[in-house]
Specification:
Bound molecules: zinc ion
CATH class of the largest domain: Mainly Alpha
Number of domains: 2
Radius of gyration: 26 Å
Number of helices: 13
Structural class: alpha+beta
Helix content: 40-55%
Shape: elongated
Oligomer: single chain
CATH topology of the largest domain: Neutral Protease, domain 2
């Protein structure tokens, strides 16, 4: 069980720093001889470095430092594992041989990426110009507002909020199978540790991840962190949702592993998301509806549009996911799964969206789009869909009848992926 850590936080960062430093320095000067007296004039030593945080609210860094000569400058540096930019803060201190410093970061104003590892270190200077930099330490920035339940097996760890042990075990089983099957299909290397966090609602997930404008999103993959965050309410049918969301997000992690961190930035959205949609365990009726309607209305998106980040509105996103899944399925069936791997390699090498298709399939982007559209036209989207999901068709029709009112309300099962 992962314990929630409640931070004991000051109400004002600046005030906390000044009050803390002044008060402590005065006490030490008036009381027993300071341990700083035992230090050589050029020696600066730090001890008791701590970090506490309250997720999405505040993170407080604190440290105690001693010096043979009064310390008059103090800097804090910190950086999330997923960020290139190091944040730095100069904290004003009154010159003293012993200081206690705290600094509070307001995370609503300066958010840190959820579930990332945060590295931090300090630098001190004394009045003689000596300086010392502490070793870098890490703190894992998780959502500590909740008591997460946990179950693990091999590289996989599942964290969830609502539901009993069967809920966590179901997620673990689906994740284990997905990881094995999709890695085999994509020729992906052995996975590193993967953490899957399961929130109880989409709204809760959207708030935690700061994606309020995409509150239709039911999942996010953060391949660079090996972390997946999904929303699955603890109610009947939760395994069906897990069977879609977990393999979808695991696909993103494995595409990242195949393409390497340097190559992943070139992955076209349609390919990355299309592979993820194709790996979902059950058909999503909303995708079939979106594809059918757009085809009939002449509103299908162009393949060039699908190379870019998808629309953020629920309807546009749903169509983009539906089309991407359909195109990847078409390539897999017409050209073989080895061509999917070939496309990933081409893009990992930096090929543009169009050039990757030309190199690997010997087609222009328009040529591929035309062939794919033609594959829909004669048989119709629904017939294609029925052929692909024959065994599920009874469930599908029932599901569609239930789903149509939801589509009308704009409630969607989609992932906004990792972008
Ligand atoms: Zn996705």
């Amino acid at each position: 069980m992962m314990r929630s850590r409640q931070a004991r936080l000051s109400t004002s960062a600046t005030r906390a720093v000044r009050v803390g430093c002044v008060a402590v320095v005065l006490i030490l000067r008036a009381a027993a001889p300071s341990p700083a007296n035992a230090l050589a004039p050029s020696q600066i030593v730090s001890t008791e470095s701590h970090v506490t945080y309250s997720f999405a609210d505040e993170m407080t860094f604190s440290i105690h430092a001693l010096s043979g000569t009064p310390i008059d400058r103090c800097y804090l540096f910190f950086r999330a594992a997923t960020e290139e930019r190091t944040r730095s803060v100069e904290i004003s201190v009154l010159p003293a041989p012993e200081i206690f410093v705290t600094h509070t970061v307001r995370l609503q104003e300066a958010p840190l990426p959820p579930f990332a590892s945060i590295s931090y270190w300090w630098e001190f200077r004394d009045t003689d110009g000596n300086r010392v930099t502490t070793a870098s330490r890490d703190v894992q920035y998780n959502d500590n507002r909740f008591e997460w339940q946990m179950v693990a097996d091999g590289p996989l760890t599942i964290y969830w909020l609502e539901g009993d042990a069967r809920f966590g075990q179901a997620a673990l089983d689906i994740a284990r199978t997905s990881l094995m099957e999709i890695a085999l299909e994509l020729g992906a290397p052995q996975p590193k540790p993967v953490s899957i966090y399961i929130y109880d609602s989409q709204a809760q997930l959207a708030r935690a991840m700061g994606i309020a404008r995409r509150d239709w999103a039911a999942g996010q993959a953060h391949p660079e962190l090996g972390t997946i965050v999904i929303a699955v309410p603890n109610r009947d049918g939760y395994t069906n949702q897990m069977a879609n969301f977990i393999p979808h997000e695991i696909s993103h992690l494995l595409v990242y592993a195949v393409m390497t961190p340097a190559g992943y930035q070139y992955a076209p959205e349609w390919l990355d998301e299309g592979i993820a949609v194709v790996n979902e365990g059950l058909p999503t009726p909303e995708y079939a509806v979106a594809l059918q309607q757009a085809a009939e209305d002449g509103q299908l998106m162009s393949l060039a549009d699908l190379c870019r980040p998808f629309p953020s509105d629920a309807y546009g996103a749903r169509l983009a996911y539906a089309q991407s899944g359909s195109i990847v399925r078409f390539i897999r069936e017409e050209y073989g799964v080895h061509q999917i791997r070939g496309l990933l390699q081409a893009y990992a090498g930096g090929a543009s969206c169009a050039v990757g298709i030309e190199e690997e399939l010997g087609l222009s982007m328009d040529g591929l789009e035309t062939r794919w559209r033609n594959s829909l036209a004669p048989r119709g989207v629904w017939r294609t869909y029925a052929e692909q999901y024959g065994p599920y068709i009874g469930i599908l029709v029932l599901g569609l009848l239930l789903a149509i009112p939801m589509v009308g309300l704009g409630i969607s099962r989609s992932s906004n992926g990792h972008r």
